[in-house]
Amino acid sequence: MGVLGEAEVQERLRGLPGWVRDRNGISKEYEFRDFVAAMGFVQQVALLAQRADHHPDIHLRWSRVTLVLTTHSEGGLTERDFKLAAQIDRR
Q1: Mean pLDDT value of segment 58-83
Q2: Helix (H) or strand (E) holding 40
């Protein structure tokens, strides 16, 4: 599994509405009605990430959650990041 080139990253981002390039990764912000709903979402993401053995950076601010995906061991974006992003959006 290698790091994707920028053209490949941009191509894959077209299939993931709301996800944007974020330095060495991709990120997306989600907004919820309140803190409890945001925490429920974080729990769902945690379960998906654990099953995939691929863990996003998670930033929680009351009703907003920002996820950042990158493959730290590879030093950039790989197919694993886009696969998990799609799973998160389908949850």
Answers
A1: 97
A2: helix 35-52
CATH number at residue 28: 3.30.1360.20
Question: Number of structural domains, the chain?
Answer: 1
Return d(Cα 1, Cα 86) in angstroms, integer.
18
What does DSSP assign to residue 3? P
**Tokens describing residue 70:** 């990158």
Domain-embedded: residue 64 = yes
In a domain, residue 65? The reply is yes
b or e along 16-29 (b: 16 or more beta carbons within 10 Å of the residue's beta carbon)? beebeebeebbbbe
Q: Is the pTM of this model over 0.85?
A: yes
